[in-house]
Amino acid sequence: MPPRLLPPSCRTVFMFCLAACRVMDTAHGRILGNNVALIYDDGLDLVRPSSHIELWMTNVLDDARHMRCPSSISFAMFRMSSKLDAITDIVQHERAGGRMLFDGMVLAVTQCRVADVLEPILSSTTPRLRLDFIACPSEAAGLEIERLELYRLNEASRDSCGMYAFHKWLEHRICSWSMEATTRRLLLDNEAPFNVTRELQDCSNLDDLQWIRSMRPIRLDVADSARMQQRKGNMLRFASLERPPFVIFERHSDGTIRGFKGYCYEIIHALQKIYNFTYEVDQPKDNTYGTVMPNGSWNGMIRMIKEQVIDIGVGPFSVTYSRSKAVDFTVPFYEEPTGILIPPPAEDNRLLACTKPFRLEVWLSLLLCVTTLPIVLWKDLQLVLKTYQKAASTSNENSKSEEENHFQEKCPSLAKQYFFVLGVLIGQSGQKLPSSGFSPRLLGAFWCLSAVVFASAYVGILVGFLSIPRLSPIISSLEELPGSKLEWGVQRGTALETLFTEATTGVYKTIGDGLLRQPTALVDVNADGIQRVTNGSYAFIKEKSYLEFAVEEDYARSGSCRLSMARQEFFKVNFAFALPTASPLKTLLDKKILQLMETGIGEYWKKIHWPRSNRKCDDVKGSSAPKSLGLTDLQGAFLILAIGSATSSLIFVAEGLVKKRTNEGQETSPLSRCRPHEWMHT
Length: 682
Description:
Elements: H1 8-27, E1 34-40, H2 52-64, E2 73-79, H3 80-95, E3 104-109, H4 112-121, E4 128-132, E5 146-149, H5 155-174, H6 181-188, H7 196-204, H8 208-213, H9 223-228, E6 235-239, E7 248-251, E8 257-261, H10 263-275, E9 278-282, H11 300-306, E10 312-318, H12 321-324, E11 328-329, E12 334-342, E13 346-347, H13 360-393, H14 397-410, H15 414-425, H16 438-467, E14 471-472, E15 487-491, H17 495-501, H18 506-517, E16 522-523, H19 526-535, E17 538-543, H20 544-558, E18 564-565, E19 570-579, H21 585-598, H22 601-609, H23 635-660
Parallel strand pairs: 1-2, 1-3, 3-4, 4-5, 6-9, 6-10, 15-16, 15-17
Antiparallel strand pairs: 7-8, 10-19, 11-19, 12-17, 12-18, 12-19, 13-14
């Protein structure tokens, strides 16, 4: 049936062009991509959008054109009042067996009556979606047209969840059919059947009862957009400082700025799509956010805002009491803790590695055991042998002689007890329990069992310590910084400078006094603070997100971990945009920023702009894999050997001198050999 809307000469050209485009799309690998017809009624104006919902639809279509499909998506706009006959002719052409001119159709309606008339006309084999901005009953029973019931959501959920559900519909109904059959089967066969209503409901976190009761017809007013455009037409003036990952300047090869991105400008660009404004960005001449000067005035961007040189300070402004008295802030969009950037942790000294397995109290306990246990054994043996001696004195002469000989053989020596206790402890073979008395043997047996535990624990921990080195941080918290050998600093003109220099008690005051004593402690740009940490013996205090960015950037540039962060964080602060007092923009920005943050889109922006951590420089833990030991690792063992060799040499010389002066043929009685002051001669 020929199109009734166009003259005969144009109708043929119209149908031929659409058919030719479709043939080229099919025959040449989908040259033109996926074609979707967007049909809307007179309640919408997508050519010159002004209302919130019109701007939203424009943004949704723009984002959809950049979806990652096998081929791009393009939209053909049809307004019902002017192109209804052309739409009808296209559908009837497909019904007659001609090639499908569109991969799908989207119907956007603000009037139920118009939608109900048009919906039966659009019955086709192609996927169809209806965007309902008001509640409309379904009067075309049996038609397979899906509905996106946007009127059930509030404005914040509609902006994000509506876009999400629409993109999911394009992905499943349009993109998937341009895939290879095998790929489509692998991706979609294991998924649950797609339902665009369920996707919208799940995204909005509404249960079935809330979903049924939810009715929020969409107003097609232009109030918010018009209020935003009252500021110099469509132009707003911003001030920003580069502060990754919140504010990132995109530069040309010659260093000039060509654009802005980052977490803060994601918010700005989202607002820009809604309110249709442009902006220009200035930078403060002193490169500071703003602090109070001695005369009571402000510097940096706060001064520019107070003097209304700019409309909005775009950046991670820390919301503090002193600043809130000078300017207004939007609602916070992020909460950030403060961290400390320090030089990388170093391995523990290996010279005394042999002492590391046990703590000081364990070593002292062992020393006490090794010192006192031989004396206890020696005294115990003496008591046992004295008992033998008394028994021998009451027996006959022959028996007495035998007992004295036995006493001479078994007479205890304190030196032997020390050798026994130490030999068991270090695992030296050939050690024998005392041969006389039950109590000395029992005590010696329990010492052997205890020594096995001590030796096994020592060896196991020592092997682990040597083969898997442990790294120790220079400091772990702000409280440890004043007692360390590090100097410290912050960026000039930030909330941290005010926090420390105005503190009156505690560690904050200690840090502030250090900043005031050292004229060079305050850095003008963050890069200077990072460079000082790289050079060593310096700690730079800054918000955690920036320090994480700096660590990853330095690792990517140098290939080594030259920076690390103290484990403990402190001073959490809210970030917000700064505005002149009583600015008319505050209400609009507060409303939209709250709506954006409630949707959870901030987490998505973090994934884009926060550095992807390689986990190599994140913490102070050493490698979990064992390594081969070198001389540095075993220098403690060689030190012990050297000390032992030197000591034994000195003792050897001393023994030689003593023996020359000692009468080696001196005879002593059995009792005299048992006296404590002569135990070294046995």
